[in-house]
Design a protein that fits this description.
313 residues; mainly alpha; two-stranded antiparallel ribbon; 10 helices; 62% helix; globular; disordered N terminus; disordered C terminus
């Protein structure tokens, strides 16, 4: 539910957040004026085969084309994740207006999964973090708890739809802002690989220990979504990587296949609480995550010539 006058509010946030843009963990990201215009909330984005990748010394035309394709493919992935986030937040809002807390739980988890798909690109923006996905443990004195986890607390701690409605309005306003900012990001191949590594590291640092969903205790949702996000990033650079180091790329691809199988073995995300997973299974999963991340990190370092430096939002 968007209150009257929400459109000017969104425009105001655009001004504030665009000026607040800082570097993300993908330190090699390339930055350019938008190739894909800001799309309507909830719509998918299909990026053209273009981007800011600049051919380095000794790079042939086929390598340059593959690098451009990797950038464009990943822009599409991020655009679709952002669109999915906008759509899930809209459904969550509608659920709360209708007083359907069961549906709201489903759509809150869906929004969380979509956010996991672009989390690393916004990790350096404290405004986005505080309004979309900040955890209660990250709050500074005097800061209001808002975003997905504030709604999670209401939905899984016996709160009412009215309580959640007090928070969801901010998400409804901020989701298309995040989508717009993400549409301006173009990552070079090395930065895409680095993002995948950061996502896998986050899985082991936060999701596997159960530190993200502290009220629903359904961190398997984040494990599945973030591993899938890392795999999508790897898939975007894989054709280029196979021309640079076919053996290492094939090994990384095999590790991702094994990792996805282990994640699938946890069962459908959102239906099994953290405490039900055997510690041994989580240790094995964490080891596979670490191994996969190490391979992708090695591969990413070989792609440094296929792009220009810069920073994402």
């Amino acid at each position: 539910m968007v209150a009257t006058g929400a459109a000017p509010l969104v425009l105001a946030f655009l001004v504030v957040l665009t000026s607040a843009c800082g570097s993300s963990s993908a330190s090699s990201a390339s930055r350019a004026e938008p190739v894909v215009p800001g799309s309507a909330p909830g719509s998918a984005v299909t990026a053209p085969d273009s981007g800011p990748v600049v051919a380095g010394k000794g790079i042939g035309s086929s390598g340059t084309a593959a690098a451009l394709k990797a950038t464009a493919t990943y822009r599409t992935v991020i655009g679709n994740n952002a669109a999915g986030f906008v759509a899930a937040v809209g459904r969550l809002d509608a659920d709360l207006v209708a007083g359907d807390l069961t549906a709201a739980q489903v759509d809150e988890l869906a929004a969380q999964s979509a956010y996991d798909g672009f989390r690393m690109l916004e990790s350096g923006n404290s405004v986005i973090a505080s309004t979309l996905d900040e955890r209660a443990t990250d709050l500074v004195p005097g800061q209001t708890f808002a975003g997905l986890h504030a709604i999670e607390r209401v939905l899984w701690s016996g709160g009412s739809s009215a309580d959640a409605l007090a928070t969801v309005g901010g998400l409804v306003a901020q989701a298309p802002v995040a989508q717009y900012l993400l549409s301006r990001d173009s990552l070079a191949p090395e930065a895409i690989g680095t993002t995948a590594v950061d996502e896998l590291s986050w899985v082991n640092d936060v999701a596997v220990p159960g530190k993200e969903e502290v009220y629903s205790h359904l961190d398997a949702v984040d494990i599945a979504a973030t591993v899938a996000a890392a795999h999508a990033a790897f898939t975007a650079i894989e054709p280029l990587a196979r021309t640079v180091s076919p053996t290492l790329t094939a090994t990384a691809a095999s590790h991702f296949t094994g990792l996805e199988a282990q994640v699938a073995g946890l069962g459908p995300p959102g239906l099994r609480a953290d405490a039900t997973f055997p510690p041994a299974a989580l240790r094995t999963l964490a080891q596979q995550v670490d191994g996969t991340a190490a391979l992708v990190a090695r591969l990413s370092s070989l792609l440094a010539s296929y792009g220009s430096g810069g920073a994402s939002s």
